[in-house]
Amino acid sequence: MSTKITGIAASDGIGIAKAYTLVDPDLSFEKKTVTDPQAEIDRLATARQVTVTELEEIKAKALANLGPKEAEVFDAHLAMVNDPDFIQQVEAEIKQQSCNAETAQQDVADQFAATLEAMTDNAYMQERAADVRDVTKRVLSHLLNRPLPDLALVDSPVVVVSHDLTPSDTAQLDRHFVKGILVDLGGRTSHSAIMSRTLEIPAVVGSEKATTTIQDGQTVILDGLHGVALADPDEHELTDYKKQAADFAEQKALWEQLKDQPTVSKDGQSFMLAANIGTPADLPAVLKSGAEGIGLFRSEFLYMDSDQLPSEETQFKAYKAAVEQMDGKPVVIRTMDIGGDKDLPYMQLPKEMNPFLGYRAIRISLKRQDIFRTQLRALIRASAFGDLGIMFPMIATLEELRQAKTIFNEEKTKLVEAGVKVGEKIKLGMMIEIPNAAIFADHFAKEVDFFSIGTNDLIQYTFAADRGNERVSYLYQPYHPSLLGLINHVIKAAHRHGTSVAMCGEMAGDQTAVPLLMGMGLDEFSMSATSVLKTRNLMKHLDASTLTDLAESAINDCETSDQVKALVEKLKTSQV
User: Fold this and answer.
1) Mean pLDDT across the chain, nearest whole number?
2) pLDDT of residue 110
3) Which residues are catalytic?
4) What residue stretches are annotated with the Phosphotransferase system enzyme I N-terminal domain (predicted)?
Protein backbone atom coordinates (compact mmCIF):
# COMPACT_ATOMS: atom_id res chain seq x y z
CA MET A 1 0.00 0.00 0.00
CA SER A 2 1.33 3.43 -0.92
CA THR A 3 2.22 6.11 1.60
CA LYS A 4 0.56 9.48 0.94
CA ILE A 5 2.30 12.76 1.76
CA THR A 6 0.50 16.06 1.38
CA GLY A 7 1.99 19.51 0.95
CA ILE A 8 1.61 22.66 -1.13
CA ALA A 9 1.33 22.44 -4.91
CA ALA A 10 4.23 24.65 -5.99
CA SER A 11 4.87 23.81 -9.65
CA ASP A 12 2.44 22.20 -12.07
CA GLY A 13 2.96 18.73 -13.48
CA ILE A 14 3.29 15.09 -12.51
CA GLY A 15 6.59 13.25 -12.14
CA ILE A 16 7.15 9.55 -11.53
CA ALA A 17 10.62 8.26 -10.66
CA LYS A 18 12.84 6.80 -7.95
CA ALA A 19 13.43 8.98 -4.88
CA TYR A 20 16.79 10.69 -4.58
CA THR A 21 17.09 11.76 -0.95
CA LEU A 22 19.23 14.86 -0.65
CA VAL A 23 20.09 14.31 3.01
CA ASP A 24 23.65 14.30 4.32
CA PRO A 25 24.66 11.04 6.01
CA ASP A 26 25.91 10.86 9.58
CA LEU A 27 29.65 11.60 9.33
CA SER A 28 30.38 11.37 13.04
CA PHE A 29 33.29 9.16 14.14
CA GLU A 30 35.36 8.29 17.19
CA LYS A 31 39.03 9.11 17.66
CA LYS A 32 41.01 5.86 17.66
CA THR A 33 44.59 4.88 18.36
CA VAL A 34 46.07 2.86 15.50
CA THR A 35 49.02 0.47 15.38
CA ASP A 36 49.76 0.96 11.67
CA PRO A 37 49.90 4.72 10.83
CA GLN A 38 51.03 4.01 7.26
CA ALA A 39 47.87 2.02 6.64
CA GLU A 40 45.84 5.09 7.71
CA ILE A 41 47.90 7.33 5.43
CA ASP A 42 47.26 4.93 2.54
CA ARG A 43 43.54 4.81 3.37
CA LEU A 44 43.44 8.61 3.36
CA ALA A 45 45.26 8.78 0.02
CA THR A 46 42.64 6.47 -1.50
CA ALA A 47 39.80 8.60 -0.12
CA ARG A 48 41.46 11.73 -1.54
CA GLN A 49 41.82 10.17 -4.97
CA VAL A 50 38.16 9.13 -5.04
CA THR A 51 37.28 12.69 -3.99
CA VAL A 52 39.37 14.14 -6.84
CA THR A 53 37.66 11.87 -9.37
CA GLU A 54 34.25 12.82 -8.01
CA LEU A 55 35.00 16.56 -8.04
CA GLU A 56 36.26 16.38 -11.62
CA GLU A 57 33.00 14.72 -12.67
CA ILE A 58 30.97 17.37 -10.85
CA LYS A 59 33.03 20.16 -12.40
CA ALA A 60 32.54 18.75 -15.90
CA LYS A 61 28.80 18.58 -15.39
CA ALA A 62 28.64 22.08 -13.90
CA LEU A 63 30.64 23.38 -16.85
CA ALA A 64 28.21 21.82 -19.33
CA ASN A 65 25.02 22.82 -17.51
CA LEU A 66 25.93 26.15 -15.92
CA GLY A 67 29.02 27.55 -17.65
CA PRO A 68 32.62 28.26 -16.65
CA LYS A 69 31.89 30.86 -13.97
CA GLU A 70 29.76 28.53 -11.86
CA ALA A 71 32.24 25.67 -12.32
CA GLU A 72 35.13 27.69 -10.86
CA VAL A 73 34.24 26.73 -7.28
CA PHE A 74 35.20 23.14 -8.03
CA ASP A 75 38.70 24.26 -9.10
CA ALA A 76 39.11 25.67 -5.59
CA HIS A 77 37.91 22.38 -4.10
CA LEU A 78 40.33 20.35 -6.23
CA ALA A 79 43.20 22.63 -5.23
CA MET A 80 42.32 22.12 -1.57
CA VAL A 81 42.23 18.31 -1.86
CA ASN A 82 45.68 18.34 -3.47
CA ASP A 83 47.21 21.05 -1.27
CA PRO A 84 50.65 19.64 -0.26
CA ASP A 85 50.85 21.64 2.99
CA PHE A 86 47.46 20.35 4.11
CA ILE A 87 48.33 16.76 3.18
CA GLN A 88 51.68 16.98 4.97
CA GLN A 89 50.08 18.23 8.20
CA VAL A 90 47.44 15.48 8.17
CA GLU A 91 50.01 12.74 7.59
CA ALA A 92 52.25 14.19 10.31
CA GLU A 93 49.41 14.08 12.85
CA ILE A 94 48.62 10.45 11.96
CA LYS A 95 52.28 9.49 12.56
CA GLN A 96 52.85 11.59 15.67
CA GLN A 97 49.58 10.75 17.44
CA SER A 98 48.98 7.27 15.99
CA CYS A 99 45.41 8.35 15.30
CA ASN A 100 42.93 7.28 12.67
CA ALA A 101 42.76 9.18 9.37
CA GLU A 102 39.33 10.68 10.14
CA THR A 103 40.61 12.40 13.28
CA ALA A 104 43.70 13.87 11.60
CA GLN A 105 41.74 15.07 8.57
CA GLN A 106 39.14 16.81 10.73
CA ASP A 107 41.69 18.35 13.14
CA VAL A 108 43.82 19.89 10.41
CA ALA A 109 40.76 21.06 8.47
CA ASP A 110 39.44 22.83 11.58
CA GLN A 111 42.82 24.55 12.03
CA PHE A 112 42.96 25.65 8.38
CA ALA A 113 39.36 26.89 8.42
CA ALA A 114 39.85 28.83 11.66
CA THR A 115 42.98 30.51 10.27
CA LEU A 116 41.17 31.53 7.07
CA GLU A 117 38.09 32.78 8.94
CA ALA A 118 40.33 34.99 11.09
CA MET A 119 41.50 36.93 8.02
CA THR A 120 38.84 39.60 8.44
CA ASP A 121 40.64 41.98 6.06
CA ASN A 122 40.60 39.49 3.19
CA ALA A 123 37.13 38.38 2.12
CA TYR A 124 38.50 36.02 -0.53
CA MET A 125 40.56 34.04 1.97
CA GLN A 126 37.65 33.91 4.41
CA GLU A 127 35.52 32.32 1.71
CA ARG A 128 38.13 29.57 1.30
CA ALA A 129 37.22 28.35 4.81
CA ALA A 130 33.95 27.04 3.38
CA ASP A 131 35.93 25.21 0.68
CA VAL A 132 38.05 23.51 3.36
CA ARG A 133 34.95 22.33 5.21
CA ASP A 134 33.18 21.15 2.04
CA VAL A 135 36.19 19.19 0.84
CA THR A 136 36.76 17.63 4.28
CA LYS A 137 33.13 16.53 4.41
CA ARG A 138 33.59 14.80 1.06
CA VAL A 139 36.85 13.11 2.09
CA LEU A 140 35.30 11.92 5.38
CA SER A 141 32.34 10.48 3.49
CA HIS A 142 34.74 8.23 1.58
CA LEU A 143 36.79 7.32 4.64
CA LEU A 144 33.59 6.30 6.43
CA ASN A 145 32.06 4.75 3.30
CA ARG A 146 28.95 6.95 3.67
CA PRO A 147 28.48 8.60 0.26
CA LEU A 148 27.22 12.17 0.04
CA PRO A 149 24.21 12.91 -2.13
CA ASP A 150 25.19 15.08 -5.09
CA LEU A 151 22.71 16.49 -7.57
CA ALA A 152 25.45 17.15 -10.12
CA LEU A 153 26.03 13.39 -10.41
CA VAL A 154 22.39 12.47 -11.06
CA ASP A 155 22.23 10.72 -14.44
CA SER A 156 18.87 8.92 -14.35
CA PRO A 157 15.25 10.00 -13.68
CA VAL A 158 14.65 10.94 -10.02
CA VAL A 159 12.29 12.77 -7.70
CA VAL A 160 14.50 14.87 -5.41
CA VAL A 161 13.44 14.59 -1.75
CA SER A 162 15.00 17.12 0.59
CA HIS A 163 14.45 19.08 3.79
CA ASP A 164 14.94 22.20 1.69
CA LEU A 165 16.83 23.21 -1.43
CA THR A 166 19.46 25.95 -1.32
CA PRO A 167 20.22 28.18 -4.32
CA SER A 168 23.41 26.17 -4.89
CA ASP A 169 21.36 22.94 -4.90
CA THR A 170 18.91 24.25 -7.48
CA ALA A 171 21.78 25.53 -9.62
CA GLN A 172 22.77 21.88 -10.15
CA LEU A 173 19.31 20.56 -11.04
CA ASP A 174 19.17 19.00 -14.48
CA ARG A 175 15.59 19.11 -15.71
CA HIS A 176 16.27 16.16 -18.04
CA PHE A 177 16.69 13.88 -15.03
CA VAL A 178 14.88 15.62 -12.16
CA LYS A 179 11.21 14.71 -12.67
CA GLY A 180 9.95 16.23 -9.43
CA ILE A 181 10.91 18.06 -6.24
CA LEU A 182 9.50 17.23 -2.80
CA VAL A 183 10.68 19.24 0.21
CA ASP A 184 9.77 19.46 3.88
CA LEU A 185 9.86 23.25 4.14
CA GLY A 186 8.55 26.27 2.25
CA GLY A 187 5.49 27.64 0.57
CA ARG A 188 4.61 28.81 -2.94
CA THR A 189 6.95 31.78 -2.59
CA SER A 190 9.97 29.89 -1.21
CA HIS A 191 13.16 29.64 -3.26
CA SER A 192 12.50 25.95 -3.96
CA ALA A 193 9.04 26.72 -5.32
CA ILE A 194 10.06 29.67 -7.48
CA MET A 195 13.04 27.83 -8.99
CA SER A 196 11.01 24.70 -9.68
CA ARG A 197 8.54 26.79 -11.70
CA THR A 198 11.39 28.50 -13.55
CA LEU A 199 12.87 25.10 -14.42
CA GLU A 200 9.42 23.64 -15.23
CA ILE A 201 9.87 20.81 -12.73
CA PRO A 202 6.76 19.59 -10.82
CA ALA A 203 7.10 20.38 -7.13
CA VAL A 204 5.40 19.93 -3.78
CA VAL A 205 6.73 21.98 -0.86
CA GLY A 206 5.87 22.26 2.83
CA SER A 207 5.34 18.49 3.18
CA GLU A 208 6.91 18.59 6.68
CA LYS A 209 7.77 14.87 6.70
CA ALA A 210 9.03 13.86 3.25
CA THR A 211 12.61 13.20 4.35
CA THR A 212 11.54 11.14 7.37
CA THR A 213 8.99 9.11 5.40
CA ILE A 214 10.56 8.36 2.03
CA GLN A 215 13.59 6.14 1.59
CA ASP A 216 16.21 6.59 -1.10
CA GLY A 217 15.31 4.54 -4.19
CA GLN A 218 11.59 4.21 -3.46
CA THR A 219 9.28 4.85 -6.38
CA VAL A 220 7.51 8.19 -5.93
CA ILE A 221 4.61 9.84 -7.72
CA LEU A 222 4.94 13.62 -7.40
CA ASP A 223 1.68 15.45 -8.11
CA GLY A 224 2.49 19.14 -8.42
CA LEU A 225 -1.07 19.90 -9.52
CA HIS A 226 -2.69 18.94 -6.23
CA GLY A 227 0.18 19.01 -3.72
CA VAL A 228 0.42 15.25 -3.16
CA ALA A 229 3.17 12.63 -3.27
CA LEU A 230 2.77 8.84 -3.14
CA ALA A 231 5.63 6.57 -2.07
CA ASP A 232 5.58 2.96 -3.32
CA PRO A 233 2.41 3.39 -5.41
CA ASP A 234 0.54 0.30 -6.57
CA GLU A 235 -0.14 -0.52 -10.22
CA HIS A 236 -3.59 1.09 -10.15
CA GLU A 237 -2.13 4.37 -8.84
CA LEU A 238 0.68 4.30 -11.38
CA THR A 239 -1.79 3.77 -14.22
CA ASP A 240 -4.07 6.55 -12.96
CA TYR A 241 -1.27 9.09 -12.58
CA LYS A 242 0.30 8.23 -15.93
CA LYS A 243 -3.06 9.08 -17.49
CA GLN A 244 -3.23 12.34 -15.50
CA ALA A 245 0.26 13.20 -16.70
CA ALA A 246 -0.77 12.54 -20.29
CA ASP A 247 -3.91 14.66 -19.85
CA PHE A 248 -1.82 17.51 -18.43
CA ALA A 249 0.61 17.28 -21.35
CA GLU A 250 -2.37 17.51 -23.72
CA GLN A 251 -3.64 20.56 -21.82
CA LYS A 252 -0.22 22.23 -22.07
CA ALA A 253 -0.19 21.59 -25.82
CA LEU A 254 -3.51 23.45 -26.12
CA TRP A 255 -2.14 26.35 -24.07
CA GLU A 256 0.89 26.53 -26.37
CA GLN A 257 -1.43 27.43 -29.23
CA LEU A 258 -1.93 30.76 -27.43
CA LYS A 259 1.80 31.60 -27.54
CA ASP A 260 1.54 34.30 -30.22
CA GLN A 261 -1.96 35.49 -29.40
CA PRO A 262 -2.74 38.74 -27.56
CA THR A 263 -3.86 38.63 -23.93
CA VAL A 264 -7.52 39.61 -23.97
CA SER A 265 -10.54 38.75 -21.88
CA LYS A 266 -13.66 37.12 -23.31
CA ASP A 267 -15.22 40.57 -23.85
CA GLY A 268 -12.11 42.02 -25.51
CA GLN A 269 -10.34 43.85 -22.68
CA SER A 270 -6.53 43.79 -23.05
CA PHE A 271 -4.02 42.90 -20.35
CA MET A 272 -0.25 42.43 -20.34
CA LEU A 273 1.43 39.21 -19.28
CA ALA A 274 5.15 39.40 -18.49
CA ALA A 275 7.65 36.98 -16.99
CA ASN A 276 10.04 37.00 -14.04
CA ILE A 277 13.67 35.93 -14.59
CA GLY A 278 16.88 35.63 -12.58
CA THR A 279 19.51 35.69 -15.32
CA PRO A 280 19.66 35.88 -19.15
CA ALA A 281 19.81 32.07 -19.12
CA ASP A 282 16.07 32.12 -18.29
CA LEU A 283 15.19 34.02 -21.49
CA PRO A 284 14.60 31.01 -23.79
CA ALA A 285 11.76 29.87 -21.50
CA VAL A 286 10.31 33.38 -21.56
CA LEU A 287 10.36 33.54 -25.35
CA LYS A 288 8.84 30.07 -25.53
CA SER A 289 6.04 31.14 -23.17
CA GLY A 290 4.86 34.03 -25.33
CA ALA A 291 5.33 36.57 -22.54
CA GLU A 292 4.90 40.17 -23.65
CA GLY A 293 7.85 41.44 -21.64
CA ILE A 294 10.04 40.93 -18.58
CA GLY A 295 8.27 42.36 -15.55
CA LEU A 296 11.04 41.43 -13.12
CA PHE A 297 14.71 40.72 -13.80
CA ARG A 298 16.09 39.78 -10.37
CA SER A 299 19.54 41.32 -10.80
CA GLU A 300 20.74 40.01 -7.41
CA PHE A 301 21.39 36.61 -8.99
CA LEU A 302 24.30 38.19 -10.87
CA TYR A 303 25.75 38.97 -7.44
CA MET A 304 24.85 35.61 -5.89
CA ASP A 305 26.35 33.61 -8.77
CA SER A 306 29.74 35.30 -8.36
CA ASP A 307 32.49 35.12 -5.75
CA GLN A 308 32.94 38.89 -5.92
CA LEU A 309 30.93 41.98 -6.80
CA PRO A 310 30.15 41.80 -10.53
CA SER A 311 31.85 44.53 -12.52
CA GLU A 312 30.03 47.21 -14.49
CA GLU A 313 30.98 45.43 -17.73
CA THR A 314 29.73 42.04 -16.52
CA GLN A 315 26.39 43.55 -15.55
CA PHE A 316 26.14 45.60 -18.72
CA LYS A 317 26.54 42.49 -20.88
CA ALA A 318 23.83 40.64 -18.92
CA TYR A 319 21.34 43.52 -19.08
CA LYS A 320 22.11 44.19 -22.75
CA ALA A 321 21.55 40.50 -23.58
CA ALA A 322 18.13 40.63 -21.93
CA VAL A 323 16.85 43.73 -23.73
CA GLU A 324 18.25 42.61 -27.08
CA GLN A 325 16.74 39.14 -26.89
CA MET A 326 13.35 40.57 -25.94
CA ASP A 327 13.52 42.47 -29.27
CA GLY A 328 11.70 45.66 -28.33
CA LYS A 329 9.46 44.20 -25.63
CA PRO A 330 9.78 45.98 -22.25
CA VAL A 331 12.29 44.69 -19.72
CA VAL A 332 12.12 45.84 -16.08
CA ILE A 333 15.27 45.24 -14.07
CA ARG A 334 15.18 45.46 -10.29
CA THR A 335 18.28 46.86 -8.64
CA MET A 336 20.14 44.57 -6.27
CA ASP A 337 17.79 43.02 -3.70
CA ILE A 338 20.36 41.43 -1.40
CA GLY A 339 19.65 40.71 2.26
CA GLY A 340 16.88 38.84 4.02
CA ASP A 341 17.33 35.26 2.78
CA LYS A 342 19.79 36.28 0.04
CA ASP A 343 23.26 36.59 1.50
CA LEU A 344 26.57 37.46 -0.15
CA PRO A 345 29.53 35.84 1.66
CA TYR A 346 31.98 38.33 0.19
CA MET A 347 30.02 41.36 1.47
CA GLN A 348 29.99 40.29 5.12
CA LEU A 349 26.52 41.63 5.83
CA PRO A 350 25.75 42.05 9.54
CA LYS A 351 24.00 39.24 11.38
CA GLU A 352 20.57 40.54 12.37
CA MET A 353 17.73 39.35 14.58
CA ASN A 354 15.18 40.18 11.86
CA PRO A 355 17.03 40.20 8.51
CA PHE A 356 13.84 40.63 6.45
CA LEU A 357 13.23 43.86 8.37
CA GLY A 358 16.84 44.94 8.36
CA TYR A 359 19.71 46.01 6.15
CA ARG A 360 18.69 44.89 2.67
CA ALA A 361 17.83 45.94 -0.88
CA ILE A 362 17.66 49.73 -1.43
CA ARG A 363 18.96 50.27 2.12
CA ILE A 364 22.26 48.62 1.16
CA SER A 365 22.34 50.41 -2.21
CA LEU A 366 21.96 53.85 -0.64
CA LYS A 367 24.59 53.06 2.00
CA ARG A 368 27.02 51.44 -0.45
CA GLN A 369 26.73 53.93 -3.28
CA ASP A 370 29.85 52.55 -4.96
CA ILE A 371 27.93 49.31 -5.62
CA PHE A 372 24.71 51.14 -6.52
CA ARG A 373 26.33 53.57 -8.95
CA THR A 374 28.17 50.74 -10.71
CA GLN A 375 24.89 48.91 -11.24
CA LEU A 376 23.04 52.03 -12.39
CA ARG A 377 25.75 52.83 -14.96
CA ALA A 378 25.47 49.32 -16.38
CA LEU A 379 21.69 49.63 -16.55
CA ILE A 380 21.74 53.07 -18.15
CA ARG A 381 24.23 51.91 -20.81
CA ALA A 382 22.08 48.84 -21.56
CA SER A 383 19.01 51.06 -22.07
CA ALA A 384 20.40 52.08 -25.45
CA PHE A 385 19.69 48.58 -26.78
CA GLY A 386 16.00 48.17 -25.98
CA ASP A 387 13.04 49.11 -23.82
CA LEU A 388 14.53 49.02 -20.31
CA GLY A 389 12.94 50.11 -17.05
CA ILE A 390 14.65 50.32 -13.65
CA MET A 391 12.87 49.40 -10.44
CA PHE A 392 13.96 50.13 -6.86
CA PRO A 393 13.12 47.46 -4.21
CA MET A 394 12.07 47.87 -0.58
CA ILE A 395 11.24 51.57 -0.78
CA ALA A 396 9.63 52.68 2.49
CA THR A 397 9.83 56.48 2.36
CA LEU A 398 9.79 59.31 -0.16
CA GLU A 399 13.28 60.29 1.02
CA GLU A 400 14.68 56.89 -0.04
CA LEU A 401 13.00 57.10 -3.44
CA ARG A 402 14.18 60.63 -4.09
CA GLN A 403 17.75 59.80 -3.09
CA ALA A 404 17.76 56.80 -5.44
CA LYS A 405 16.40 58.95 -8.29
CA THR A 406 19.02 61.63 -7.63
CA ILE A 407 21.85 59.09 -7.84
CA PHE A 408 20.34 57.69 -11.05
CA ASN A 409 20.14 61.16 -12.63
CA GLU A 410 23.73 61.96 -11.61
CA GLU A 411 25.07 58.81 -13.25
CA LYS A 412 22.95 59.29 -16.36
CA THR A 413 24.20 62.87 -16.75
CA LYS A 414 27.83 61.73 -16.41
CA LEU A 415 27.37 59.09 -19.12
CA VAL A 416 25.63 61.47 -21.51
CA GLU A 417 28.32 64.12 -21.00
CA ALA A 418 30.96 61.46 -21.72
CA GLY A 419 29.28 60.75 -25.05
CA VAL A 420 27.86 57.33 -24.04
CA LYS A 421 24.66 56.45 -25.85
CA VAL A 422 21.70 55.86 -23.51
CA GLY A 423 18.01 55.15 -23.98
CA GLU A 424 15.79 58.12 -24.85
CA LYS A 425 13.32 57.34 -22.09
CA ILE A 426 14.27 55.11 -19.17
CA LYS A 427 11.22 54.45 -17.03
CA LEU A 428 11.80 54.50 -13.28
CA GLY A 429 9.62 52.50 -10.93
CA MET A 430 9.47 51.12 -7.42
CA MET A 431 8.36 47.99 -5.69
CA ILE A 432 5.31 48.22 -3.46
CA GLU A 433 6.11 45.59 -0.85
CA ILE A 434 6.17 47.54 2.42
CA PRO A 435 2.71 48.37 3.86
CA ASN A 436 3.72 51.99 4.44
CA ALA A 437 4.50 52.38 0.74
CA ALA A 438 1.13 50.85 -0.14
CA ILE A 439 -0.73 53.17 2.24
CA PHE A 440 1.23 56.19 0.94
CA ALA A 441 0.75 55.18 -2.73
CA ASP A 442 -0.88 58.48 -3.75
CA HIS A 443 2.32 60.36 -2.92
CA PHE A 444 4.72 57.80 -4.41
CA ALA A 445 2.71 57.67 -7.64
CA LYS A 446 3.61 61.29 -8.39
CA GLU A 447 7.33 60.39 -8.36
CA VAL A 448 7.57 57.29 -10.60
CA ASP A 449 6.48 55.96 -13.97
CA PHE A 450 5.23 52.66 -12.59
CA PHE A 451 4.62 50.55 -9.51
CA SER A 452 5.28 46.84 -9.26
CA ILE A 453 3.52 45.14 -6.35
CA GLY A 454 5.75 42.53 -4.73
CA THR A 455 3.15 40.39 -3.02
CA ASN A 456 5.63 37.86 -1.60
CA ASP A 457 6.95 40.43 0.87
CA LEU A 458 3.82 42.58 1.08
CA ILE A 459 1.84 39.62 2.43
CA GLN A 460 4.43 38.61 5.02
CA TYR A 461 4.81 42.20 6.23
CA THR A 462 1.05 42.80 6.34
CA PHE A 463 0.42 39.69 8.44
CA ALA A 464 3.74 39.81 10.35
CA ALA A 465 4.39 36.22 9.27
CA ASP A 466 7.68 34.92 7.88
CA ARG A 467 6.78 33.35 4.54
CA GLY A 468 9.48 30.70 5.02
CA ASN A 469 8.29 29.58 8.47
CA GLU A 470 5.95 26.59 8.24
CA ARG A 471 4.66 27.22 11.77
CA VAL A 472 2.99 30.46 10.68
CA SER A 473 2.28 29.50 7.07
CA TYR A 474 -1.46 29.64 7.79
CA LEU A 475 -1.08 33.44 8.00
CA TYR A 476 0.24 33.72 4.46
CA GLN A 477 -3.14 34.65 2.97
CA PRO A 478 -3.05 36.24 -0.51
CA TYR A 479 -6.86 36.23 -0.75
CA HIS A 480 -7.61 37.90 2.58
CA PRO A 481 -10.05 40.80 2.09
CA SER A 482 -7.78 43.24 3.94
CA LEU A 483 -4.83 42.48 1.66
CA LEU A 484 -7.04 42.71 -1.43
CA GLY A 485 -8.24 46.09 -0.18
CA LEU A 486 -4.64 47.27 0.20
CA ILE A 487 -3.77 46.16 -3.34
CA ASN A 488 -6.90 47.81 -4.71
CA HIS A 489 -5.94 51.05 -2.94
CA VAL A 490 -2.49 50.97 -4.60
CA ILE A 491 -3.94 50.43 -8.08
CA LYS A 492 -6.56 53.16 -7.75
CA ALA A 493 -4.03 55.64 -6.27
CA ALA A 494 -1.56 55.01 -9.10
CA HIS A 495 -4.19 55.40 -11.80
CA ARG A 496 -5.27 58.74 -10.35
CA HIS A 497 -1.81 60.04 -11.25
CA GLY A 498 -1.37 58.25 -14.57
CA THR A 499 1.04 55.70 -13.11
CA SER A 500 0.80 52.11 -14.34
CA VAL A 501 0.72 49.15 -11.95
CA ALA A 502 2.27 45.74 -12.39
CA MET A 503 2.47 42.83 -10.00
CA CYS A 504 5.59 40.68 -9.95
CA GLY A 505 4.90 38.54 -6.87
CA GLU A 506 3.75 34.95 -7.19
CA MET A 507 0.17 36.11 -6.69
CA ALA A 508 0.21 37.51 -10.26
CA GLY A 509 0.06 33.98 -11.69
CA ASP A 510 -2.26 32.53 -9.05
CA GLN A 511 -5.36 31.28 -10.85
CA THR A 512 -7.64 32.27 -7.96
CA ALA A 513 -6.16 35.77 -7.67
CA VAL A 514 -6.14 36.57 -11.41
CA PRO A 515 -9.90 37.31 -11.75
CA LEU A 516 -9.75 39.54 -8.66
CA LEU A 517 -6.73 41.47 -9.99
CA MET A 518 -8.37 41.86 -13.38
CA GLY A 519 -11.40 43.33 -11.62
CA MET A 520 -9.20 45.82 -9.75
CA GLY A 521 -7.68 47.04 -13.01
CA LEU A 522 -4.13 45.71 -12.64
CA ASP A 523 -2.25 46.68 -15.80
CA GLU A 524 0.47 44.04 -15.93
CA PHE A 525 0.78 40.53 -14.52
CA SER A 526 4.38 39.28 -14.23
CA MET A 527 4.97 35.67 -13.23
CA SER A 528 7.06 32.56 -13.74
CA ALA A 529 7.28 31.88 -17.47
CA THR A 530 5.56 28.53 -16.96
CA SER A 531 2.40 30.29 -15.74
CA VAL A 532 2.00 32.69 -18.68
CA LEU A 533 0.05 30.50 -21.13
CA LYS A 534 -2.13 29.02 -18.41
CA THR A 535 -3.04 32.55 -17.28
CA ARG A 536 -3.68 33.74 -20.84
CA ASN A 537 -6.03 30.80 -21.29
CA LEU A 538 -7.91 31.68 -18.08
CA MET A 539 -8.23 35.34 -19.04
CA LYS A 540 -9.70 34.60 -22.45
CA HIS A 541 -12.58 32.72 -20.76
CA LEU A 542 -13.40 35.51 -18.29
CA ASP A 543 -15.83 38.35 -18.92
CA ALA A 544 -13.88 41.35 -17.56
CA SER A 545 -17.04 43.45 -17.24
CA THR A 546 -18.21 41.22 -14.38
CA LEU A 547 -14.91 41.20 -12.50
CA THR A 548 -15.11 44.69 -11.00
CA ASP A 549 -18.15 43.61 -9.02
CA LEU A 550 -16.33 40.40 -8.07
CA ALA A 551 -13.37 42.32 -6.66
CA GLU A 552 -15.58 44.80 -4.80
CA SER A 553 -17.61 41.98 -3.28
CA ALA A 554 -14.46 40.15 -2.18
CA ILE A 555 -13.12 43.28 -0.47
CA ASN A 556 -16.34 44.61 1.04
CA ASP A 557 -18.58 41.58 1.66
CA CYS A 558 -16.12 38.81 2.61
CA GLU A 559 -14.43 38.38 5.98
CA THR A 560 -12.11 35.43 5.32
CA SER A 561 -9.86 34.04 2.62
CA ASP A 562 -12.08 30.97 2.30
CA GLN A 563 -15.10 33.15 1.54
CA VAL A 564 -13.12 34.95 -1.18
CA LYS A 565 -11.98 31.65 -2.71
CA ALA A 566 -15.55 30.36 -2.76
CA LEU A 567 -16.69 33.56 -4.46
CA VAL A 568 -14.05 33.26 -7.18
CA GLU A 569 -14.67 29.55 -7.74
CA LYS A 570 -18.37 30.22 -8.19
CA LEU A 571 -17.62 32.79 -10.89
CA LYS A 572 -15.04 30.59 -12.64
CA THR A 573 -17.48 27.69 -12.67
CA SER A 574 -20.03 29.86 -14.45
CA GLN A 575 -17.59 31.34 -17.00
CA VAL A 576 -14.69 28.97 -17.63
Assistant:
1) 90
2) 92
3) 191, 504
4) 6-128
